[in-house]
């Protein structure tokens, strides 16, 4: 097996089959879950001793007939939710793995993503553009929406627990009111698949990634059209997550994990790599001190310790981008400085902004799609 480690000095753990997704427990950084293409779910414990970090597989069980595509945990950390290509949703005890609730045919198409709204409510999105809301205490879905003509790529809920953001393969950001169970607004059609979204800058901005390598930014409550864009990536962005309100991490189709600062937008460093295979998902611990990425055809996961990473990158931001000589990034910066300079030059040449703030704007235009995301 070819090594697909993400960082040279982080602990690794191997699995018998390819890992499709992972998720940290929301109340402790010592536990994360990994879902496999075989339908197995793995409970992974992180041992953080003073002298050495390690990971161990505490439990594995077959939870779906087909691949596990997404994992979620309730805010209290007591229950695990998994969705699958087999179209089912299953709820299990985090401690024992025992089944609590299941929806055998939750969707008519394979389920691609999920979002935990609160301890009892869940949102799911499938390959045909359907979004559903569920209450674990009820046998049927609370609501069903079909406002997208292509797959739902990501779901994110705001801290108010009432605003649900969805991105789709058709290139739209769609916003739902969870409590009223209705569509709030849909953005105009972008030129590429939107692959993921994150709420940043203390809830005032939303950033969406695309298969063209462009990041789109929206002002909160102004979702009709983007307010800014950053085309600094050399290729498609498969996924993204945030380390804090001004630092995000992108998983890219070139197999690299990049860390970016926001406002001003800048690629700060490459913090991980998996060779040439695309990064499929990213997950951070509850304190954002750990980062794990999964890659297509990857059977090995490696833990990235982001504590020192955040300190160094925030220092870089404060010093206006001046290069700081630090052993933690010495090897990466020597090898990748040329790439950073090229990406920054492209960013400064191409970056632009859009001032259209119309909340009710739902303009449709012909898409200019270059590539489609592959689902397993």
UniProtKB/TrEMBL annotation:
Residues 366-376 have a biased composition (Basic residues). Keywords: Repeat, WD repeat. SUPFAM superfamilies: WD40 repeat-like. The keyword Repeat applies. Signal peptide: none annotated. WD repeats lie at residues 61-102, 104-144. Residues 333-342, 350-361 have a biased composition (Acidic residues). InterPro entries: WD40/YVTN_repeat-like_dom_sf, WD40_repeat_dom_sf, WD40_rpt, WDR55/POC1. Residues 322-376 are annotated as: Disordered. PANTHER family: WD REPEAT-CONTAINING PROTEIN 55 (PTHR44019). Belongs to the WD repeat WDR55 family. This is WD repeat-containing protein 55. It comes from Rotaria sordida.
């Amino acid at each position: 097996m070819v090594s697909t480690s993400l960082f040279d000095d982080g602990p690794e753990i191997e699995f018998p089959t390819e890992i499709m997704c992972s998720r940290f427990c929301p109340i402790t950084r010592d536990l994360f879950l990994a879902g496999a293409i075989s339908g197995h779910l793995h409970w992974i414990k992180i041992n953080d001793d003073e002298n050495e970090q390690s990971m161990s597989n505490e439990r594995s069980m077959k939870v779906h007939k087909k691949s596990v595509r997404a994992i979620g945990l309730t805010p209290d950390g007591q229950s695990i939710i998994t969705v699958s290509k087999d179209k089912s949703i299953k709820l299990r005890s985090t401690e024992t793995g025992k089944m609590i609730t299941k929806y055998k045919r939750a969707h008519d198409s394979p389920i691609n993503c999920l979002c935990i709204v609160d301890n009892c409510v869940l949102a799911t999105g499938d390959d045909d553009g359907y979004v559903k809301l569920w209450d674990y205490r009820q046998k049927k879905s609370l609501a069903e929406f079909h406002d997208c003509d292509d797959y739902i790529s990501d779901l994110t809920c705001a801290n108010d627990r009432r605003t649900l953001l969805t991105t789709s393969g058709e290139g739209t950001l769609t916003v739902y009111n969870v409590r009223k169970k209705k569509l709030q607004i849909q953005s105009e059609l972008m030129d590429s698949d939107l692959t993921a979204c994150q709420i940043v800058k203390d809830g005032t901005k939303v950033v969406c990634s695309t298969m063209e390598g462009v990041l789109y930014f929206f002002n909160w409550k102004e979702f009709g059209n983007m307010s800014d864009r950053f085309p600094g990536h050399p290729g498609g962005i498969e996924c993204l997550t945030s380390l804090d309100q001004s630092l995000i991490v992108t998983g890219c189709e070139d197999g690299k994990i990049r860390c970016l600062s926001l406002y001003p937008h800048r690629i700060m460093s490459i913090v991980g790599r998996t060779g040439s295979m695309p990064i499929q998902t990213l997950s951070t611990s509850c304190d954002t001190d750990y980062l794990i990425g999964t890659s297509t055809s990857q059977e090995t996961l490696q833990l990235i310790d982001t504590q020192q990473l955040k300190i160094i990158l925030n220092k870089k931001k404060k010093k206006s981008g001046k290069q700081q000589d630090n052993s933690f990034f010495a090897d990466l910066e020597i090898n990748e400085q040329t790439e950073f300079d090229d990406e920054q030059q492209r960013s400064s040449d191409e970056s632009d902004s859009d001032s259209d703030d119309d909340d009710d704007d739902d303009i449709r235009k012909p898409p200019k799609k270059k590539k489609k995301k592959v689902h397993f």
